[in-house]
Amino acid sequence: MTVAKIWVFGEAAGDTVSNTTLELLAKARTLADTVEVVTAAGNDIAAAVGAHGASKVLTVPGTDGKLLGAPVAGAIAAAIEAGTGPDAVLLATSYDGRDVAGRLSVKADAPVITNVVDLVERDGALAGVEPIFGGTTNVVTKFTTDKVGIFLVRPKSFAAEETGGGAAAVEELAVPDLGASGAPTITNRFVEEKTGPSLDDAAVVVAGGRGLGEKDNYQLVEDLAKLLAAAPGASRAIVDAGWVPYSYQVGQTGKVVKPTVYIAAGISGATQHLVGMKGSKNIIAINKDPEAPIFSVADLGIVGDVHKVLPKLIEALQGR
Amino acid sequence: MNVVVCVKQIPDPADPGALDPSTKTLKRDGKLILDESDSYGVEMALQLVDAAGGGEVTLVSMAPNSEVGGLRTALAMGAAKAVLVSDDALAGTDALGTAKVLAKAIERAGSADLILTATESSDGYTGTVPEQIAELLSLPSVTFAKEIAVDGSTVKVQRQTEAGYDEVESPLPAVVSVTAGVVEPRYPSFKGIMAAKSKPVDEVKLADLGIDAGSVGWAGGGQEIVEVAEAEAREAGTIIEDDGEAFGKIVEFLDDLKVI
Ligand SMILES: Cc1cc2nc3c(=O)[nH]c(=O)nc-3n(C[C@H](O)[C@H](O)[C@H](O)COP(=O)(O)OP(=O)(O)OC[C@H]3O[C@@H](n4cnc5c(N)ncnc54)[C@H](O)[C@@H]3O)c2cc1C
Ligand SMILES: Nc1ncnc2c1ncn2[C@@H]1O[C@H](COP(=O)(O)O)[C@@H](O)[C@H]1O
């Protein structure tokens, strides 16, 4: 084992545990003797994370209606100070994961290794693997001090795997006085209704880009997605243009997807888009420019006009 | 109301990046421009000051070689002045070191009611600097804002979440990070561009901020790149020109994979 103890930041998704938490647990088990979950989600997730190899759930109390960055980081830092903390903390690159990592990094005066897609051992220490240039190059970074190792890991970097363990024991962490940093309060939560398969777990994703020409043509993507029971996705260009909501965005600042098939229609394949979909098992690209970088990752590339190819494809599938 | 906006000046993203072979970090020696991600924070700040009916927008930036290219763009949009930290000892500074420098620069800018950043920079994209600044200044923070309104000494933020968004209230002063694309950054007018040339840029060194050079730069980093390697490349696929029948190839491909 590379280190003695890893803490995974456990996040809720609705009333269960998020899949990224389970992904991190799967990796953490291969790196540390003791794997524990620190969470604001309370006891609710103890059974689920226990079944994925966590021996303990450390809850951070008093977070109802609060942002999680300050209290969770405060609790972890207090434990480190008391000598009961972990050697490393793994967090997902999520809204709350980043908040916790940033606050904790200052409290522990330790840097964060970000955009991690794999964790490896280098010279007896944990190191993070980060893809750059759209995933064509990997950079391996390790810490040079013996302070806590903070890693922000991209979703879908590992596969979640059950161990069959029982529910994890639950313990409460102490939260120090947070002063002003604990002040923000959530006054209202809005859930955007989504129908159909989600980008996170659909077997097929059909994504459209600026090559569709105009907003109304995104209907072609929706139609094709419906026929394939696929989740519709988008490049940032058309999200920024307001054609589709942000939740459709695939890429560095959007979702990471790894479906069986990813269909990119009228997407150039900018590095920031590629990092979000390059891990798909099969990639089909339709682009009128034979030089488009998307073709460098495509298993099947069609050099052609989306306005010609998509309607015919839709018609052919409707006929089946 | 006074708003401080952190703006990063970066190499033009249209230029392909390259690693410096000796330091294994991105080269940043050419001309730098305003990171597009920060143009939303600048616009948001200008709108908030407008709505408050008084106050000004101050920029804070850390950049090599006394670079002011990106600052002039934001000044031309309407910011009043800037603090620029430029010091050779900063080469190799990581996100935590950057936050330490920016926190001191924000203090130097003076009496900010609100501090805005982007959620992540285009070239570094660690996404940790905003929260680090907040912690260093012992301030509350709200990240991933898509809408910001100030009501007296309270800031109300719509914060993006996995499920949708949360409405969050925080007392001021506070740090808020602004999501890209949520406002339409204004184009600097000709008058704005001319005016920007004479707006004050307070250029400072580490010593002016009371920061020990050993706590930042390569030495202060606490992390080290030990390896740079080509990632496993995907196997080359089949590329065909559409002759009107290429859709059939897609159907075949999907059939083989049993997804239809
Ligand atoms: C910090 C940062 C983060 C980013 N994060 C993301 C991210 O998460 N996700 C993301 O997607 N992008 C992201 N981007 C933006 C990214 O750099 C690109 O600008 C974006 O992906 C381009 O979208 P696009 O491919 O739809 O548009 P374009 O690059 O404009 O490409 C359109 C493509 O359509 C093709 N085309 C045009 N007409 C047709 C036609 N009739 N038929 C077929 N093909 C046609 C063109 O040949 C072209 O290749 C980010 C950028 C930055 C700086
Ligand atoms: N050198 C810098 N100068 C000014 N602002 C910065 C700098 N680095 C980061 N920031 C701010 O912090 C945000 C997040 O940066 P990062 O953590 O690098 O993704 C940026 O979008 C900027 O608003």
The figure for the number of domains of chain B is 1
What's the N-to-C terminus distance of chain B? 59 Å
CATH architecture group name of chain B: 3-Layer(aba) Sandwich
What shape does the CA trace of chain A take?
elongated
Terminal Cα separation of chain A, in Å?
Answer: 53 Å
Summarize model confidence as the mean pLDDT of chain B: 94
Question: What percent strand of chain B?
Answer: 25-35%
Number of helices of chain B: 7
CATH superfamily of the largest domain in chain A: HUPs
Describe the structure.
The complex is a heterodimer of chains A (320) and B (260). Chain A is α/β, with parallel strands linked by helices. Chain A is built from 8 helices and 18 strands. Chain A has helices at residues 19-29, 46-50, 69-81, 95-107, 218-227, 236-240, 271-277, 306-318; strands spanning 3-10, 12-13, 16-17, 32-39, 56-59, 88-92, 112-116, 118-122, 125-132, 137-143, 149-153, 169-172, 185-191, 204-208, 231-234, 261-265, 282-287, 300-303. In chain A, strands 7-11-6-1-4-5-12 form a 7-stranded parallel β-sheet, sandwiched between helices. A 5-stranded parallel β-sheet of chain A has the order 15-14-16-17-18. In chain A, helix 5 (218-227) packs parallel to helix 8 (306-318). Chain B is α/β, with parallel strands linked by helices and 260 residues long. Chain B has a single domain (2-221), classed as Rossmann fold, CATH 3.40.50. Helices cover 27% and strands 28% of the residues of chain B. Chain B contains 7 helices and 13 strands. In chain B, helix 2 crosses helix 5 (190-196). The radius of gyration of chain B is 22 Å and the shape is globular. Classes of the chains: A alpha/beta (320), B alpha/beta (260). At the A-B interface, helix 3, helix 4, strand 7, strand 9 and strand 10 of A face helix 3, helix 4, strand 7, strand 9 and strand 12 of B. Bound molecules: flavin-adenine dinucleotide and adenosine monophosphate. Flavin-adenine dinucleotide (FAD) sits between chains A (209-211, 235-238, 249-254, 266-268, 270, 272-273, 276, 286-289, 292, 305-307) and B (13, 37, 122, 125).
